[in-house]
Structure to design on (123 residues):
């Protein structure tokens, strides 16, 4: 499985403001996991008020790139449990990676992500 990391600066439609900060753009990391003809996507955003940066997320994911490349068709729950010890201080990075893996796994099963999670689009 190959890992591709992309960064974007997204312009917000309206300024986002909380007590400690205001901003008009959002730094975003897109994680793509590729296995043969299949790929899955996940994302996470930088959050200064949590001390989360794109650079730190990239570093955290790159630390496990060899382990990711050797993974073969583990169930999403097992994937999360296998990855979690490597990301105890980088939960935003784990989230992006986990969603990318769930998306990839669903596509390999011939399902949409909401179907893998047994959700409905009716509501």
């Amino acid at each position: 499985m190959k890992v591709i990391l992309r960064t974007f600066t997204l312009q917000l439609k309206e300024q986002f403001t909380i007590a400690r900060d205001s901003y008009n753009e959002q730094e975003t990391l897109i994680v793509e996991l590729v296995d043969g003809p299949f790929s899955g996507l996940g994302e996470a955003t930088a959050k200064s008020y949590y001390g989360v940066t794109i650079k730190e997320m990239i570093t955290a994911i790159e630390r496990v790139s060899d382990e990711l490349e050797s993974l073969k068709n583990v169930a999403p729950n097992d994937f999360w449990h296998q990855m979690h010890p490597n990301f105890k201080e980088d939960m935003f990075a784990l989230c992006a990676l986990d969603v990318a893996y769930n998306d990839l796994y669903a596509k390999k099963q011939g399902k949409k992500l909401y179907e893998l999670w047994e959700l409905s689009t009716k509501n």
In short: The first strand starts at residue 2 and ends at 18.
